């Protein structure tokens, strides 16, 4: 519960959250979470960092080199409002108040959150550009009106979002154009459903291969142990 309340503690949208942890050695640490969705609105790079650190800490792995082609990344966006663009000439005349709230929008907060998410998307795409099939970003770019309000949890809006998600499965895969910052269709006949199925099949094969290796290793160790006992 603390994790959920903390990660959603987005300024002006949801309340900040504080919680305390007690470690096994008796130390107490207080966490004050006030910037949900700001520092890591898109947590992809954090996840990749944790995996890399785990590899370096695992004594069973001999080769510690960072092989980016070993990463298979599925990144799920939470949707963006269609046509989010700010007119620079008009924005240049805004004062502090209009940057905080303008025409029912929150330009400053939206800019920070969207920029943070997009930059992670760009960095991940660049790092895995040589193995494009290893990175799949699924994002709904055409939310409209109330659908884009992340603090609107009415039954009607939630049903609309579920419908949007289901429809998104059969839409073509789109990726961010690194030059224009706009989404572009990869292939008209290649849908998100197809891409997810392909990724799931790859992961399933990898899991079976690892299980087979693990079983062979265990069998080998058991055989060696028996030999010693004899």
UniProtKB/TrEMBL annotation:
Gene Ontology terms: biological process: lipid metabolic process
PROSITE patterns named in the record: PNPLA
Keyword Lyase: no
Database matches in SUPFAM superfamilies: FabD/lysophospholipase-like
Ranges for region Disordered: 204-230
Placement of sequence motif DGA/G: 35-37
Residue ranges of every copy of the PNPLA domain listed in the record: 1-48
Lineage: superkingdom: Eukaryota
Keywords: Lipid metabolism
Family indicated by similarity: Belongs to the patatin family.
Annotated protein name in UniProt: PNPLA domain-containing protein
